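Ticket #721: bound-state structure for adenosine-5'-diphosphate.
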Amino acid sequence: MNRADKLTEERRGRLAAERMLELKQAELRAANRKLGLHARELTEKIVKTRAVVETIRDENQRFRSDLSAANQKIALTERRLWHSIGTIKDGFAFFNADNEMIMANQAYLAVFDGLEEIRPGVNYVTILQVLTEEGIVNTGDICPEAWRQMMTDRLYQPDPEPTIIQLWNGTHIKLIDQRGPGGDMVSLGLDISATVTHQENLKEARAIAETANRAKSAFLANISHEIRTPMNGVVGMAEVLAETDLTDEQKLYVDTIKNSGEALLLIINDVLDYSKIEAGKLDLHLSTFDLEQAVLEVLMLLQPAAREKGLALLLEFDMHIPSAVEGDPGRLRQIMTNLIGNALKFTSTGHIIVRVDTLAGTKDTIKIAIEDTGIGIPPDKLQDIFDEFNQVENERNRQFDGTGLGLAISQRLVRMMGGEIKVRSADGVGSTFEFAVTLPAAQAADPLPQPGKDLMHVIIMDPMEVSADILRRQMERLGIKVTVCADPDEVLLRCNSGVAVILAEHAPPTHDGIALAQTIAEGPCPVPLILLSNTPGRTMPEGRGEGVQAILTKPPSRRDLLAQLAALPERDTPQTPPDALRPMRILAAEDNRTNQLVFRKMIKSLDVDLTFAANGEEAMELYQKIKPDLVFMDISMPRMDGKEATQAIRALESETGVKVPIIALTAHAMAGDDAAILAAGLDHCLTKPLRKPDILTQIHAAHSADMRPLETAEKADQLAG
Ligand code: ADP
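RESOLUTION: The complex was predicted; output attached.
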């Protein structure tokens, strides 16, 4: 090769190398550019990452400081909490679900007086063990094992009841253990020693107050007893004196003594009862009694006052109420006496009707209503009259005296019996007081007689419409047809052979039942008459009783009425002549001479044999000797008291099988006496001062057909006259 070629080749080679170089350079540049780009990206990323790291570091920083602040707060709160728990004087501990102590305050631990065992981790059961073994707790009458068992049982209850434990030093701790979520338990031991001491002081104070109150009640009872005994003499003798020949002036004096004495006794009774009710000391004494008899006794007592004022005191007793009921007869009589007494007091003309009925829809709830035609009560005063010492104060009312306690006492007594007392009244027209109490029917010792089935038609003659209506309703309740006549002429007109009996008012001269009976007996269709008289104790005058079946006092008891109706067909059976009969024998045990005298005078009009015993021992001896038909027994007598004497008599009777009625004469007024007396075997209690009607009622009740009639012929003539 030539040089030129070589040069050309060289140039070519150089050129190719140069191109190659350029190419490589271009590649290098591109790679460089890429590298730069990448480096920039990387740098940007690093910057970004650095910023994130920065933020995180900041946040970390903040979290850390927040955490430390929170920790400080928790520590502070915990410190404060423990400080508080530590400063309270009551014990506080915390247990886990396994009953292991987590923590306890100083007061809790102090009870254990530094005992090593009692610290966090100890079990509740171990604590109970330590309490008994170290004698820290006073388990009283319970032995330590039983106490621990009791406390452990309590612990395992889901919701343990608070309990009180007593420590060796007398401190009283109330333990309150409360389970929380997860079975944890907070245990509180409250020192209630101060409260317990306070309660004990209160109990003591209360006992002292109760003793004082009992002393007051006893004092009141004693005082009333002491007042009653001489008042018995005063009232009784005044009653006897009033029956002797006196000038009008003397009679006025005697009546004043008697009325004042009786008024004083009523006031004493009211005050006594009221204070007893207030002190919660008045109890009801339930017994089986004859409700109708109780009502009649009250009426009998108040009848003289009604007669004196010219008022009719009437009774409508439902024919189907059971004769024996269960209740407190004494308190029922008291309520009725109050209400009927008020009715009498505030009525000057018209009548008072006592209605006894069962409450509609019930069997045992007895409704007693007392209806009067008196001055009435203004509507704005109706609510207040049951408050103690509240009396309607107006012109008409000021003339009436009273304590203002009667209605308050009655209301409380009715409430004690589970009832409520209500009043309806129209000012100037009259009032009705009504109450209903549950008196369950009891087994009657002596069921009511039943009238014969052929008793279809009766005539009632009563000039007083309300009174005739009552009798008519009673007869109609028995399914008997009734014709009401106003006077004897109408009876003669209406009487026919279908009439079984005539129930006629005997109030001569206008309504002379005896004369009417005679006329009818002599007429074409003789019908027997049962006479009803307002005068108690009226008996048939000898030789003038033709056609008269019986004379009953108004209001007649259902028993008497039914007995007479039942006896109608046999009215012709001959009666034992009076001469063949023996007198009724009465034994009265009474140590006080004045009382003996009062008693003798009270029954002097009766044809009876009366014997006195001066003490219980003598009563027992005389009982055996004279075999009395009735015994009146004073309760407080020397040597042997009335209750002992009665027990002795009852013991004697258990051999012979006869049982004489024994009536207690008592001056005690405290609740419970009656019950104790009846429990001793006496049949009935009469409270002194003795009242003639009460005595006569008892004598009449014990009188039987084999004894001479009670009224002497001379007395009967006087009455019938
Ligand atoms: P007292 O009759 O002793 O005043 P009560 O508590 O029995 O006391 O009666 C309170 C008052 O209620 C009587 O004073 C009287 O104003 C009035 N009151 C009670 N019953 C009747 C009645 N049947 N008619 C009119 N007012 C009566």
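RESOLUTION NOTES: The chain has five domains: 3-87, 91-191, 287-438, 457-570, 578-720.
TICKET STATUS: resolved
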